[in-house]
Amino acid sequence: MTKLPCWNWLRLYNRQTLGSDxxxxxxxxxxxxxxxxxxxxxxxxxxxxxxYASILPLIAYAIFGTSRTLSVGPVAVVSxxxxxxxxxxxxxxxxxxxxxxxxxxxxxxxxLLFLGFIRFGFVTNFLSHPVVSGxxxxxxxxxxxxxxxxILGVAASGKTLPELAFSxxxxxxxxxxxxxxxxxxxLLILHWSRGHLAKRLERLGLTPLLAGALAKCVPVAVxxxxxxxxxxxxxxxxxxxxxxxxxxxxxxxxxxxxxWTVIRELILPALLVALIGFVESVSVGRTLGxxxxxRIDANQELIGLGAANLASAFSGGFPVTGGFSRSVxxxxxxxxxxxxxxxxxxxxxxxxxxxxxxLYYLPKVTLAATIVIAVxxxxxxKIIKTAWDYDQADFMAIVITIVLTxxxxxxxxxxxxxxxxxxxxxxxxxxxxxxxxxxVPGTEHYRNIDRHKVLTHHNxxxxxxxxxxxxxxxxxxxxxVDTELxxxxxxxxVILMCPAVNMIDLSAxxxxxxxxxxxxxxxxxxxxxxxxxxxxxxLKRSALLLQLSGNVYLSHHAAVLELTQKS
Amino acid sequence: MTKLPCWNWLRLYNRQTLGSDxxxxxxxxxxxxxxxxxxxxxxxxxxxxxxYASILPLIAYAIFGTSRTLSVGPVAVVSxxxxxxxxxxxxxxxxxxxxxxxxxxxxxxxxLLFLGFIRFGFVTNFLSHPVVSGxxxxxxxxxxxxxxxxILGVAASGKTLPELAFSxxxxxxxxxxxxxxxxxxxLLILHWSRGHLAKRLERLGLTPLLAGALAKCVPVAVxxxxxxxxxxxxxxxxxxxxxxxxxxxxxxxxxxxxxWTVIRELILPALLVALIGFVESVSVGRTLGxxxxxRIDANQELIGLGAANLASAFSGGFPVTGGFSRSVxxxxxxxxxxxxxxxxxxxxxxxxxxxxxxLYYLPKVTLAATIVIAVxxxxxxKIIKTAWDYDQADFMAIVITIVLTxxxxxxxxxxxxxxxxxxxxxxxxxxxxxxxxxxVPGTEHYRNIDRHKVLTHHNxxxxxxxxxxxxxxxxxxxxxVDTELxxxxxxxxVILMCPAVNMIDLSAxxxxxxxxxxxxxxxxxxxxxxxxxxxxxxLKRSALLLQLSGNVYLSHHAAVLELTQKS
Lengths: 567, 567
Description:
The structure is a homodimer of 567-residue chains.
Chain A: H1 6-10, H2 15-42, H3 47-52, H4 56-64, E1 71-73, H5 76-87, H6 95-117, H7 129-152, H8 161-171, H9 177-203, H10 208-216, H11 218-232, H12 260-291, H13 298-314, E2 321-323, H14 324-332, H15 339-355, H16 364-376, H17 382-390, H18 392-408, H19 410-430, E3 434-439, E4 446-448, E5 460-465, H20 471-486, E6 493-497, H21 506-521, E7 525-529, H22 533-540, H23 544-547, E8 552-553, H24 556-566
Parallel strand pairs in A: 5-6, 6-7, 7-8
Antiparallel strand pairs in A: 1-2, 3-4, 3-5
């Protein structure tokens, strides 16, 4: 049996690494307390579930995960996906709703573990990066909008941009001025401190390290201040919603309640949550790993995240994954190993044990402001511009993903994005680039007759194919040969030059056989040249080479030489 | 406005073409009468709907279609798909069932027209040929099995192999010996005449043309004989099911009855019927067209087949498309233009007007035998062997298609087949072939260091990438460079040799940027060589070339020369 990944860091653990990890853990704990409460709110769940999802899952990942600095726990996009999926099977606020969220974590965990055991880490490759960026940007917009109702102090809901906008428009008149005031203050302080506080503190003479650490405490300070203000001014009597009573203590180790009908409804969302969570997490892990030359093993990551989600499900939490901002903070704060995560878990556990009564007067609007500021970093419209400049197909895939995520919701959005990028890729390779080529005078080189002054022979048609041949372009190959041949008289030999053909599938072999027999009927021979080794190996297993009316030449020049000498 | 396709043949029509077309039309009419009745039976519809689907649709295709010899009408696979789709929304034998079949033709027609107008003829390229063969083979098996109950004279039903087998097993004890006898006789005669009759007649001194024409009349002769026998022996009293009363006369021009709930259920099946029908039809049309150098325009074919299906819907028929065997007969019988189809329509119309009373005593088992013999030509197990020999991925796609079509039905079967071939193609290009290359001594050629004796430089790593770079393999590219670099010491330059890279999408550009910055952190420069024109054009629109730590070289040799002289 191979060793658990935690062996790699545990066996080298010493006082120095413990010291570094402890500092990082304290900073991340302070950051994670408001985030865990806020993302539970975003997922439509009671705040304690956010804390529960930030204890055992961290320990599980520390044991089974490969990234030393990844900070696992509730994250924005997955929490939004949870709200969408669970909202389809239960009413928010009911026990069934919480149970369904736990079931979703269980299913995602099992799916991730299964994919890890069958070594399917490569599935993420099917998600094109622009599509993922587009999806996350659109999700960020939806998340920010969904928090707007908390900031206005009204009850609005919806899973799509039109639903949310309509819902907000109908209730905006009922805006609570006290809630809005608290919300705007929090937004302003959080936004300003994010951009400027650290620099201001440095200018006041603090060391950069201390200034940075202090700036990271602002969210907690905002929470403490708004809680005190809510308590002192009795804001609940003025309609400001408070977090209220959070059960004190550690989560009970509970077996998730399983219902088949719910599982059937949640299996597809669980798959999407698992994949999106995995893609996000692995890309964060890889980015941070590259800075320290640490390798992230995608298959082991599936197992680590799967274990984290199972741990979440068995301790009353909801789906978790590696978060970007927290992981960067963890890394910057000097975390050396997964020990930092384990220590963060201890910090959150202590919070759950002792600090929850202090959160009674925390206004929900403060948490909403925390979320809005956090997701503002996810929104990246620049990717649209980059894609527009680069390529139509990439641009289309992003726009489809963003528009459908905003208008039809996260699930349809991400599935359409994957569908769009695959379809566009096939569409792009469907009409392969090809060139009629001739000899560059005095050389053995063959180049495009439209771009270069080259020599051709009246009875030889040389076509260079610049694409692998497979089912999506097999028909087009027949068309190319037909069209080019019909424009020329006296052709006796067609040579397909294949230096850029990396693969020929069975559909394309059949198309070549068809081309071969059609040419034969016209008395024209078909030759191949510069076929690559692996492609030639494949062709030898088909009937094409037996039927081919002409020959296969190692170089195009050899083909032309022999065919001109013959005639 | 462009001219209607029929203009192409109408303006050149003369007595000679009329003569040829008339002969072909007579033979095809004789063949189409039993087929149209039989395929209506297969689709679970009253026999007259088979005749109706063989009149106006032929005229519509003759006006709008581009193949001169394609014979449009009811065909086996599409009839089976109709039975499956319509069986989900209505009970066989009810008016709703017939209405749903008409609605299916209407929807398929509209979908085909729409795809034609937006010039989406290329969609068929997404269906790999082996997958289509596998689907048709599995459908042929299902069709033959579904007719077995008619041949045994029992009532069995089912849409999948297990359902049909189970249903047959429970009722096989109730086999009607009279029905079975008629069925076996028909099967034997039809099977034997197909293989041997024409040759026997030739040996008896008949001309090949006459012998062939006579052999083609056997199905009609079998129908006449079994009708006479059923009448004479009063077989209906012995439990042999007869076709019974067929309304005499032409179909009324009727507006299809539209119900939203039915349309929603039928829209996906209609899309599948449209696509499969189109693929089958176009491949028949192309095969025949190639023999006479006639071009088939895929987009115009969509419009032709769309018009045919609309015509079918508005005259009480069901989905139609171009059939293989009938078209070959039409071609062989000397049809010169779409006029032959129009004349065939007249033949079927005359049948509907005058001959239906004569079909009262026709046993259904005779029609079932006709179907079994017809579909036996569709079944092609050889494709499995061919694919097995050629390539794992093609083999997998076929097996998935066949197994799922047999066990879960035609709709899931064909969708899974498309999904499988696309996934396998992506999987195949996901781990691109690459080679570390070195100079072949005394030349400017660079070859794989594992296959050839080549020279390398201690500080240069040359990697040749043998695949287009896109989202599915972008991550793998990073892995290749990382892995190869970690196995060597003292590398200062990495050169990616790209002669076989036909396309780089945005995900791959981002991966290259990532590779570039990671190498830069280690003090290694990244260069590109032999980048193709279109790829270079694309890269110029990205930020990669600005960030690239090294250069882009026209030839790999130039790169190595310059980099070795520098150091």
